[in-house]
Amino acid sequence: SPTNLPHGDFADWKGHQYVFYGPTPAIILMPFVYLFGVDFPQYLISVFSLILTFMGVILLVRKIGFKNVDALWMSMFFVFGTVLYFNGLVNISAYLVQVLGSVFVIFSFYEYFSKKRWFVTGVLIALAGLTRINLFGMVLFYILEIIRHNLESKTRAFILLLIPVLIMMFILGVYN
Question: 3-state DSSP call for residue 13?
């Protein structure tokens, strides 16, 4: 019922209510709802996402050259010192979207700074974009990085990066 939702969290059109964010959180929730019913507390996925983000920041920061202690501090500051922590603990769908998006963003950066597999990076960007559409914009960072570096095959890197992003943007357009 739209009376139970905060105004601005949905669009009411012809008697149907639609949320503004992408389908990734719903897809991740589906197996849990199937197994445990509609009363499954989605904040458990948020808490698990916070744990993944914590670990991801540690891995990322260590990969770019920080010491273990510094990586731990930066991870603690990122997860517990920002609004991300609050979003991960409150059982509101819009907050789950933000926490899941953060996981995909952090791991896309980790992938870039470690193995630079452009297709994997593109998949992570696509999944992030399917949580919040504005996260598709982060593909610009990677495009600029491909342009900036003298890669053997810039065209191949562009294609591998953009294929999952463009496919998911198309799917999101059809979904909407």
Answer: strand
